[in-house]
Design a protein that fits this description.
It is built from 24 helices and 19 strands. By secondary structure, the protein is an alpha+beta fold. It has 3 domains: 114 residues, Lipoxygenase-1 (Sandwich), CATH 2.60.60; 294 residues, Lipoxygenase-1, domain 5 (Up-down Bundle); 208 residues, Roll (Nuclear Transport Factor 2, Chain: A). The two termini are 53 Å apart. It binds fe (ii) ion.
Length: 710
């Protein structure tokens, strides 16, 4: 008789423990142990605990290949979910093997776990293990099915597939009740919150695609105080214009941030308007011009007062100091009604100049893509309210493109597709699964909640934006059709836009440091498991993964430039770096500042109530207030900004991997080196920020989440 010593770790989440009966079978190259119940006197598998057991076998099992965990009914207790973190097995010779799990196991089922050693399929030859890979993926593909949300959208999780699954099977991730997409009789409004938040469904979703209780509670407690405050003051139901600009300052008196206060003070300034193209929430919009576009006939006399006597437009174009923000995509956007009144949208062109002092300043704004007598080109030399209204129209266009495309489409939806492909095509033992899984945490959850509360018909988007849901569908599908691999990869994106040499572009500077840190880390991991290009080419699971992303996220569009297969380790490193960067840093850059920059509503109006002006000299404070959103629309939008800018608790900053999917020494050293590098970047950012009137912290590594989770 030989004895194997087994340690079982249960996650420290609320309700992570189980009362079900847990047995184990150890499977080795030479033999299998008999199934043995893991049972001590007292309670087993309590949250956060590591329990030790002995498993007897009549003979040595050889090299351990699998651990089978059997979760079965215990006495009269109802079945419950169990979050198993990992299992370690020490063999009679003292060799310890770790079997990572890090998932909820629900229902009565058998789960098979492989040792933590990362293995690509090329290195597996035993039929038992090859079969295990196949079965694991088949089960996951049943569980995580693709769904078409709207034509031209990246495909997403079909939450119904969880409901259709059988209750008992291997690798089971079982029933989900009820789905947030469907709503349920438990739907209720948070006080004052304009959209239904289905609280029971947040808590009862299948555990592997649900927020933790801590995160849900934190999300709801963030929403309620802000909405209550506004409700009490009657603002969420008050239609009509703001009577004066100052009234808006009082709305969020309890929720000011240093940046939101700075915005309130400086929003009218051209310097600040230009600054936001570099370090605001949508820092991806401008590109350098070498000549003016034919539909934007700006002349020298128009810009001479801004440029001064020693230069001219042509000279500045040749110097590379002229930039354009082109909102062409809004040209055909449908427009809706709010509070029963028609709304309007513009498709502006905004010309900017990088002055010799290094400030980016707006030079001219045209509010339509078609020039003509009814489309004046607005200039800083126009009357105060004409110029401010023109800039506010641009800020409205920024809001629409930022929220729909830069933020939701290019981070939330694409990252969901990466998460789906990773879950469906890579088994638990695959090194790329181990690498990417932490960067998909809570992404399916937050998107499911967003679809149920924000994007659905009559959801928040319909209630606060001029373009409503039809416009959202149009913008995102058009945005995806024009989205390219160059735009997705930060270094290529910056180069293509010609913005490498603009001073004080902190998004770029911090983003590039983080990109390089991720790239070094990914390079080490890839080299660890892929000794040469041929292993990349022969890894059928990896090829299926990249193929699925190409088909499901980018709809097999060759024009996107996204890879449909990978041939070299270099290509793999670039693709993985871009995915991790966009799931973490890019999302932080475009998400975390929403309240900071949007709380002062005229800086980010969600809708405009009058058409763009066709002549100069007609705008007054009154007509300005009658054009920007009404009180209730502004307040509902502010609530949303407040909610999504607060990362709910249960965070995991970039580079932290408390779930130890990698168990070998080499990747663990790479993780430690990555963490050291991020700590140094953070130190540099904090030192730089001490010198700035408006610090840029969105890409400070400890403030970046590993994944899109809010
Ligand atoms: Fe977000």
């Amino acid at each position: 008789m030989v004895v194997y010593r087994v340690r079982v770790a249960t996650g420290s989440y609320f309700l992570a423990g189980t009362l079900d009966s847990i047995s184990v079978t150890l499977v080795g190259t030479d033999a299998e142990s008999p199934k043995q119940l893991l049972d001590h006197i007292g309670r087993d598998f309590t949250p956060g605990a590591v329990h030790k057991y002995k498993v007897n076998s009549s003979c040595e099992l050889g090299e351990l290949l699998l651990v089978r965990l059997h979760k079965e009914r215990y006495s009269f207790f109802p079945k419950d979910s169990w979050y198993c973190s990992y299992i370690t097995v020490t063999d009679p010779g003292g060799v310890v093997t770790c079997f990572p799990c890090y998932q909820w196991i629900e229902g009565y089922c058998t789960v098979e776990l492989r040792p933590g050693t990362g293995k690509i399929i090329c290195y597996d030859s035993l039929p038992l293990l090859l079969d295990h890979r196949k079965k694991e993926l088949r089960a996951r593909q049943e569980c995580y099915r693709w769904k078409i949300y709207a034509p031209g959208f990246p495909r997403m999780l079909d939450v119904n597939s969880f409901e259709e699954m059988e209750s008992d099977r291997k690798f089971a991730l079982t029933k989900m009740t009820p789905s947030a997409d469907q709503g349920s009789s438990g739907n209720r409004y948070l006080p004052g919150f304009p959209s239904k938040i289905d609280i029971p469904s947040l808590l009862h979703m299948e555990p592997n695609i649900r927020y933790s209780f801590t995160k849900t509670a934190s999300l709801l407690s963030n929403a309620i105080p802000a909405s209550l405050g506004m409700k009490l003051r009657g603002l969420l139901d008050r239609k009509g214009s703001w009577k004066k600009l100052d009234d808006m300052r009082k709305v969020f008196c309890c929720h000011k941030t240093p940046t939101s206060e700075y915005v309130t003070e400086h929003w009218k300034e051209d310097h600040f308007f230009g600054y936001q193209y570099l370090n605001g929430v949508n820092p991806v919009m401008i590109h350098r011009l070498s000549s003016l576009p034919s539909n934007f006939p700006v002349t020298d006399p128009m810009v001479a007062p801004s440029l001064g006597p020693s230069t001219c437009l042509q000279a500045e174009l040749e110097k590379g100091s002229i930039f354009l923000a082109d909102y062409w995509i809004l040209g055909d956007a449908p427009v809706g009604h709010l509070n029963g009144r028609p709304q309007y949208v513009a498709a502006p062109l905004c010309l900017l100049w990088l002055n010799p002092q290094g400030a980016l300043l707006p030079l001219a704004i045209q509010l339509s893509q078609t020039p003509g007598p009814d489309t004046p080109i607005f200039l800083p030399s126009d009357s105060e309210w004409d110029w401010l209204l023109a800039k506010t129209w641009v800020r409205n266009s920024e809001f629409l493109i930022h929220e729909n495309n830069t933020h939701f489409l290019c981070t939330h939806l694409l990252c969901e597709a990466f998460a789906m492909a990773t879950l469906r095509q890579l088994p638990l033992c695959h090194p790329i699964y181990k690498l990417l899984l932490p960067h998909t945490r809570y992404t399916l959850q937050v998107n499911t909640i967003a679809r149920a509360t924000l994007l659905n018909p009559e959801g928040l988007v319909d209630k606060v934006t001029s373009i409503g849901r039809p416009g959202l569908l149009y913008l995102m599908s058009t945005g995806l059709a024009h989205f390219t691999y160059t735009m997705f990869c930060l270094p290529d994106n910056l180069k293509a836009r010609g913005v490498q040499y603009i001073p004080n572009y902190y998004y770029r500077d911090d983003g590039m440091k983080i990109w390089e840190a991720i790239e070094n880390f990914v390079n080490e991991i890839v080299n660890c498991y892929y000794p040469s290009d041929i292993f990349v080419q022969r890894d059928s699971e990896l090829q299926a993964w990249v193929g699925e992303i190409f088909a499901q996220a980018f709809l097999s569009r060759k024009s996107s430039g996204f890879p449909s297969c990978l041939s070299t380790t270099e290509e793999l490193v670039k693709f993985l770096t871009a995915i991790i960067f966009n799931c973490s840093a890019q999302h932080a850059a475009v998400n975390s500042g929403q309240h900071d920059f949007g709380a002062w509503m005229p800086n980010a109006p969600s809708s405009m109530r009058n058409p763009p002006p066709q002549t100069k000299g007609t705008t007054t404070l009154k007509s300005y207030l009658d054009t920007i959103p009404e009180v209730n629309i502004s307040c509902n939008n502010l609530l949303l900004f407040w909610l999504v800018s607060q990362e709910p608790k249960d965070q995991r900053p970039l580079g932290t991997y408390p779930d130890e999917h990698f168990t070998e020494e080499a990747p663990r050293q790479s993780i430690a080196a990555f963490q050291n590098c991020l700590a140094q970047i953070s130190q540099d950012i904090r030192n730089r920020n001490k010198t700035l009137a408006l610090p840029y912290s969105y890409l400070d590594p400890p403030l970046i989440e590993n994944s899109v989770s809010i």
